[in-house]
Design brief:
mainly alpha, Arc Repressor Mutant, subunit A, 3-stranded antiparallel beta sheet, two-stranded antiparallel sheet, 5 strands, about 5% strand
Length: about 300
Amino acid sequence: MARQRGFEPGTRLPEQQIASLCNVSRTPVRAALSLLAERGVVRWEADTGYHLAVDLTAQSAISAELPAAEEDELAEAILRDRSARRLDQTVTAAGLMRRYSAERKTVLKALNKLTEENLLDRAPGQSWLFRRTPDDPEAQGESYEFRLLLEPAAILIPGFRLDGARAAALRQGMDALSAQPDAAFDTREFQRLDMDFHGMIAEGCANRFVADALADHLRLRRLPGIYAGVNVFRLRQSLLEHLNILDHLESRQYEVAADLLRIHLRLSRNQRPQAASRGAPRAVRHDQPAGMTRIN
């Protein structure tokens, strides 16, 4: 939440406000803040409570360092094994208990989590069915066709609203990642930023059905290895394309932003960076020196 809203170091973190935004009680929020205080991410002040202690745009590895709930770890393991085809399309609670040596309650929590995220469907009896995910070339092509139909349209539907704070936080994160050398380029951080960027577009759409369809599909792209085979050059280029789209969204040039998004999705689908300039409208970053044009 702090990342999405662009909170700066020193920002106060009221328990009740966070509980309301996260739709939980204050008890887990208090526990989470206490844990973050132990890690030095937040600090406690007797008079005013918790405050953000770090610059989140410069701390991309924080989420990777934090412990996960047992059911969250199991859910990720299930996704990894399904992505690697070590699990059939249909699974049962009993089978997962044996495979992962996990308690029934933990397995059921993990299955419920994946069901809520629309990655699984409940099947007859004590079984669950994996939804079709973009984890093979054919499915990835269909995924991009789906997104090409809906994502640019989400921007052009009257009433689109950009979350300014979230956009600013994303810009900072993408600039920070772009500055990393190839050897240190963090693919997991790219995935987080990529999901947040496209999620922001989905959430900004004024049509709830389009927004929900895009959000549901975006969750399918959480599978491990979704960026396997994509080289760092292409990932860097994607960051530049995201930033160009942001420039035009912030300027309310929605037609241009939608055009750039179509090109971005086509390039990502084809994974051919050399085709980047074909058909793309020229876009100049406002903060670039005169004469320098970003190639899309």
